[in-house]
Amino acid sequence: MEIIDAYIKGLKVVTGDCFHDKRGHFVETFNLKKLGDNDIDLSIYQENQAFSFKGAIRGLHYQIHPFAQAKLVRAIFGEIIDVAVDIRKNSPTFGKYFKILLTGDNNKQLWIPEGFAHCALTKSEFSIMAYYTNNRYSEEHSRIINYNDPDINIDWGVDEFIVSEKDSSAPLLKELDLEDLL
User: Which residue out of 62, 131, 132, 147 is catalytically annotated?
Assistant: First the structure.
């Protein structure tokens, strides 16, 4: 398992070792010791899975304390553009984003600690995404930032999206109460 730091402090790209033989392949996607040895502290509370069609976008989601969540995200099938936006108030990279292509074939995962908003866009005809969280979902503590916020200016590489009403009407980062940021 290879774990490297992304250019925004705290984010990490995790690539599982893949072993091929005549039956197919095997990938180790989670190893608590190896993650812990690389400063990824993930006590799994919940696992989520989403099936999405091409152009479907989910996010930018996060939760505030005491239910802030860290996530370890991967694509089981298909291709997703996975994005994390730094919303740590005192961070030198506040409002900046990191983007990575996660596929069912590249064995990459994105470690997103608390303090980041998360969004995923399906690039392929459909995708299956899964992610572990370290805390439970709490509707009361759930927050959203608009995925098309011009100040964040994420280069999605597509013009048409399938978006929920909740996500499409989300506020911009500058419109949020700073107490809602981590």
Answer: 131
